[in-house]
């Protein structure tokens, strides 16, 4: 057949908002990485209307063949399972003597806004007709509609809902499939399952799943890896036969274990379109490091794509305001030297997991940039916090020790990075930032004295982590002894630990930066505890405390003590997840 692409503009009154996931709507089908046909061809007065899908990129397009001049084809996309839809997407008409044409490609999913779409191809050839909707069922390890009698396990994550003596209960199995059951019911009672991709805020494509008058529904998936939708929430609902009122349980996110539960809740906030967790630049580097730690611990490969996606999308340049207040100048560099160094550690972690050399190479590029701000002309050494050289502080120099020692431990035959790591550690340890109590203050004054600034947990953790990595590089037990002093000070001082629980001084009103500090501490304290066998009870206590803050959606709070108020967002999630991984 001969094909021409002719995109006709739809009225602005009906034009849908452009969706961007891996790519944006209206991508050329010639760029598709795959071509599949998930539903049958619609034959319309001898014409063939087909739905084409690129599953690798989550995009679809429509075509019409065996047609004549002005026959047209378009794509419909629905966000509520086919009840309503954005129509005439990419509408194209056969021109001239051509016998076929096709639309441009449109996204089937919108994980950035927690929406799951279905699509169909439609044509007008002396009458309008459409294919079936594609992907109305969600498939993970198993697909929607599986018999609950085949469940692999049975747990009830939230209390049952009650109504007129009935108990409507939510059940999940070990594969993330969920169903509803009723106890104490009567003939004619109804049960169903609701499913939401935005933590229960809405459920347009998941309302009344499996509605039945039987004692239980079929099972439904709570993850949609094809659509990059993780951590789907479900609730069980029912209606008594003698009334019109219904009752539902709380929303819950099924998960097999605490680490998986916390990881999926973190993944649910990742934005594939922009390749980060909006909208914090350095926090996203730390969140990626935490995600990588989790994948290494659990062996989960289903979320590894986030590592490549983050690298691919964010390696370039961004003007001020897109990734933070500063421009990003390529290779994750900015005027904030500490922000840049966090990405160096993130890519070293990615290399450890994947053995993909490009991540190690990127860490070297970043470290070369950071090392350019080491300056012996002020305070005898140390890396400046910013390009303007206004401050020498603990976070930047703790990062530098860790980064240089870690590079040495991953580059065979290296001597240069080891020399830098030794020099950096000696300078940090003797800079005065570590006070007589073994606690790390924030930085130095202009006269190179300890400024008495807040003892933040992440500064303490980075000093411990830098020492542990240097000990791995050198075997120098005096460095490990210093790490033990720092760990002991953190575990016993009320500046960081209250009633046995790691506590940031800003709680409960920490800003978006400080929400993630404790996770950095937990990561490196945990490394020390595993390496030495010391303070394992303390590390375990933090894990238990962090997990105890969860709600039914496995969201974890800022305050591991559990006190209210207890803010929750993806930063507190990443922080608490790191504690679970000790």
UniProtKB/TrEMBL annotation:
Residues 1-19 form the signal peptide. It comes from the Bacteria. Keywords: Hydrolase, Signal. Pfam families: Glyco_hydro_76 (PF03663). Gene3D superfamilies: 1.50.10.20. One of its GO terms (biological process) is carbohydrate metabolic process. SUPFAM superfamilies: Six-hairpin glycosidases (SSF48208). GO terms for molecular function: hydrolase activity. PANTHER family: MEIOTICALLY UP-REGULATED GENE 191 PROTEIN (PTHR47791:SF3). This is Glycoside hydrolase family 76. It comes from Kutzneria albida DSM 43870.
């Amino acid at each position: 057949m001969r094909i021409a692409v002719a995109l006709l503009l739809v009225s602005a009154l009906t034009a849908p908002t452009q969706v961007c996931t891996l790519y944006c709507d209206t991508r050329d089908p010639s760029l598709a990485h795959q071509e599949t046909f998930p539903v049958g061809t619609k034959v319309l007065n001898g014409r063939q209307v087909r739905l084409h899908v690129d599953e690798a990129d989550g995009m679809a397009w429509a075509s019409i063949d065996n047609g004549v001049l002005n026959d047209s084809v378009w794509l419909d996309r629905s966000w509520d399972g086919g009840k309503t839809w954005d129509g005439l997407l990419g509408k194209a008409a056969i021109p001239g003597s051509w016998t076929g044409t096709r639309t441009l490609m449109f996204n089937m999913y919108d994980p950035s806004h927690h929406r799951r779409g279905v699509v169909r191809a439609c044509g007008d050839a002396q009458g309008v007709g459409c294919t079936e909707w594609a992907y109305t069922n969600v498939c993970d390890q198993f697909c929607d509609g599986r018999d609950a009698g085949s469940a692999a396990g049975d747990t009830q994550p939230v209390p049952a809902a009650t109504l007129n003596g009935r108990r409507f209960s939510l059940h999940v199995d070990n594969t993330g499939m969920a169903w509803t059951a009723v106890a104490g019911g009567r003939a004619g009672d109804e049960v169903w399952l609701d499913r939401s991709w935005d933590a229960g805020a809405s459920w347009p494509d998941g309302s009344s799943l499996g509605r039945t008058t039987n004692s239980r529904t079929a099972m439904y998936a709570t993850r949609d890896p094809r659509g990059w939708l993780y951590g789907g929430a479900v609730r069980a609902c029912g209606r008594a036969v003698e009334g019109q009122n219904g009752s539902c349980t709380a929303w819950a996110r099924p998960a097999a274990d605490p680490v998986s539960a916390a990881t999926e809740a973190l993944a649910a906030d990742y934005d594939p379109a922009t390749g980060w967790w909006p909208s914090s630049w350095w926090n996203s580097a730390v969140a990626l490091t935490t995600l990588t730690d989790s994948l290494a611990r659990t062996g989960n490969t289903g979320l590894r794509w986030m590592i490549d996606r983050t690298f691919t999308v964010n390696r370039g340049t961004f003007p001020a305001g897109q990734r933070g207040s500063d421009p990003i100048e390529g290779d994750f560099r900015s005027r904030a030297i500490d922000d840049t160094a966090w990405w160096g550690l993130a890519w070293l972690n990615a290399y450890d997991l994947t053995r993909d050399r490009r991540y190690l190479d990127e860490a070297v590029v970043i470290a070369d940039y950071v090392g350019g701000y080491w300056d012996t002309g002020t305070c005898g050494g140390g890396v400046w916090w910013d390009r303007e050289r206004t401050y020498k502080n603990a976070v930047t120099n703790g990062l530098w020790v860790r980064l240089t020692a870690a590079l040495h431990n991953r580059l065979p035959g290296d001597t240069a990075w080891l020399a830098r790591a030794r020099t950096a550690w000696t300078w940090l340890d003797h800079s005065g930032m570590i006070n007589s109590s073994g606690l790390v203050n924030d930085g130095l004054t202009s006269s190179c004295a300890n400024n008495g600034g807040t003892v933040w947990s992440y500064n303490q953790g980075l000093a411990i982590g830098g020492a542990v990595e240097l000990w791995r590089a050198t075997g120098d037990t005096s460095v490990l002894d210093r790490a033990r002093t720092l760990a002991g000070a953190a575990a016993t001082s009320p500046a960081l630990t209250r009633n046995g629980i790691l506590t940031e001084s800003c709680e409960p009103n920490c800003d978006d930066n400080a929400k993630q500090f404790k996770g950095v501490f937990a990561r490196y304290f945990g490394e020390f505890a595993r390496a030495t066998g010391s303070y394992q009870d303390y590390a375990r206590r933090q894990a238990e405390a962090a997990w105890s803050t969860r709600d039914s959606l496995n969201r974890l709070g800022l305050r591991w003590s559990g006190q209210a108020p207890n803010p929750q967002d993806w930063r507190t999630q990443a922080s608490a997840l790191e504690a679970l991984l000790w």
